[in-house]
Design a protein that fits this description.
Helix content is about 80%, strand content about 0%. It is mostly helical. The chain has one domain. It is globular, with a radius of gyration of 16 Å.
C-alpha cells in the first residue's frame, strides 16, 4: 500500500475558503433568510448560541473533510480530477445522505436544496484546491 501524501496547506486553505463560501451562502442577502425560515429560527436565536464552539467545531469537521478528500484523491491529483471527485462526493454521498435524513425528519425541499447545495459547492471547491495544490 502506498503511503498517503497530504498537502496540509492545501487542506487548511480549502477549509478556510469553504468557511468563506458558507459565510456568503448563509448570509441574509443569499440564502440566510430562507434558511432561517425553513429551520423555524430567528437571527437572534442563532446569535444567542455559543458561536465560538459552533464555528470551532465546524472548522475542525471541515478540516476532517479536507483530509478525507485529500486521501480519496490519491497521490497524483490535478485540478479537474479534484473538481470532479469533489462534486461526485458532494452529490453522491453527502447530498444523498442529507436527503435521506431530511426525508425521514420531514425537512423541506428548500432546506435540502440550500444545505445540500452548499455541500456540493464546498466539496467541489475543496477537491479543486487540493487537486491543483500538489
Amino acid at each position: 500500500m502506498e503511503s498517503m501524501q497530504i498537502n496540509y496547506i492545501a487542506v487548511f486553505v480549502s477549509a478556510v475558503l469553504s468557511f468563506l463560501v458558507g459565510w456568503v451562502w448563509y448570509a441574509p442577502f443569499l440564502f440566510g433568510k430562507i434558511w432561517l425560515k425553513e429551520l423555524g429560527l430567528s437571527q437572534q436565536e442563532i446569535e444567542n448560541q455559543n458561536m465560538l464552539k459552533i464555528f470551532g467545531g465546524a472548522f475542525i469537521l471541515t478540516l476532517i473533510i479536507g483530509f478525507n478528500l485529500a486521501a480519496f484523491l490519491g497521490p497524483e491529483p490535478d485540478f479537474s480530477l479534484g473538481l470532479f471527485y469533489g462534486a461526485l462526493a458532494g452529490i453522491g454521498w453527502v447530498s444523498a445522505s442529507i436527503g435521506v435524513v431530511y426525508l425521514f425528519s420531514r425537512k423541506s425541499l428548500k432546506l435540502f436544496l440550500i444545505d445540500a447545495g452548499y455541500q456540493v459547492v464546498i466539496y467541489t471547491l475543496m477537491g479543486g484546491i487540493i487537486g491543483v495544490w500538489k
